[in-house]
Amino acid sequence: LEAQGKTLLAVSRDAELIGLLAASDTLRAEVPAALEAVRALGITHIELLTGDHERTAAALAQALHVNYRADLLPTDKIAIVKNYQAKGHTVVMVGDGVNDAPALAQADVGIAMGAAGSDVAVEAAHVALMREDWSLVPQLLGIARRTIRVVKMNIVFTLLYNTLGLTLAALGFLPPVFAAAAQSLPDLGILVNSSRLLRQK
Questions:
Q1: CA distances, 136 to each of 5, 27, 92, 147, 196 (Å)
Q2: pLDDT tens-digit map of 2-33
Q3: Can you give the chain as a three-state secondary structure string?
Q4: What pTM does this model have?
Q5: Listed residue (148, 149, 150, 142) closest to 201, CA to CA
Q6: Measured between alpha carbons, how far apart are the two ends of the chain, in Å?
Q7: How many CB atoms neighbour CB 50 within 10 A?
Q8: Is 5 left (phi over 0), alpha (psi -120 to 50) or beta?
Q9: Average pLDDT along the chain
Q10: What pLDDT was estimated at residue 109?
Q11: CB neighbours (10 Å) of residue 12?
């Protein structure tokens, strides 16, 4: 039973062993699909960091096809996050327990499962998901990427527009009155471009 990742509980009566109970974590049905969706976004390295013992962690990691590290203390998790960051990686940490809180705060992006997570984890994280639904994680990452793309597009558009406007004004092709009036157009363009995010589900 321990080889299957189960935790054994001994039952005794009058100092005599009368039975064993086996307990194990239940893998949420949406987790495998959520991890595949994360991989589809180009995130290839996913690692399970847990305070559970080796066999429990190994069984769970095998089911999810991820690397794992077991028997970790909160300080161990922070050290692992810092190590990845020192190598130039951007670290996203997902957790829900008190032991996850320090690593959530240290990560570049800390995501707490708000519905089932501890208050400490929610406070430490950068983002709190209000449903205990792992399918929200790839959705969140997708929204974040789309938002960054829109922000970059807005910056490039503004720079090009202002450069063109200043050049035309400096060469005398654009009268000062029209140049001043044209200054409001980039704001309208940015607003329209950014509104595309509201249509994303």
A1: 27, 16, 14, 16, 20
A2: 666 677 788 998 888 888 888 777 788 899 99
A3: CHHHCCEEEEEEECCEEEEEEEECCCCCCCHHHHHHHHHHCCCCCCEEECCCCHHHHHHHHHHHCCEEECCCCHHHHHHHHHHHHHCCCCCEEEECCHHHHHHHHHCCEEEEECCCCCHHHHHHCCEEECCCCCCHHHHHHHHHHHHHHHHHHHHHHHHHHHHHHHHHHHCCCCCHHHHHHHCCHHHHHHHHHHHHHHHCC
A4: 0.77
A5: 142
A6: 43
A7: 21
A8: left
A9: 88
A10: 95
A11: 9
| Residue 118 and residue 124 in contact, taking contact as beta carbons nearer than 8 Å | no
Query: What is the pLDDT averaged over residues 111-135?
Result: 84
Distance CA 168, CA 185 (A): 16
Residue 56 confidence (pLDDT) above 90: no
In whole angstroms, give the CA distance from residue 135 to residue 32. 9
Structure tokens at 91: 């670290």
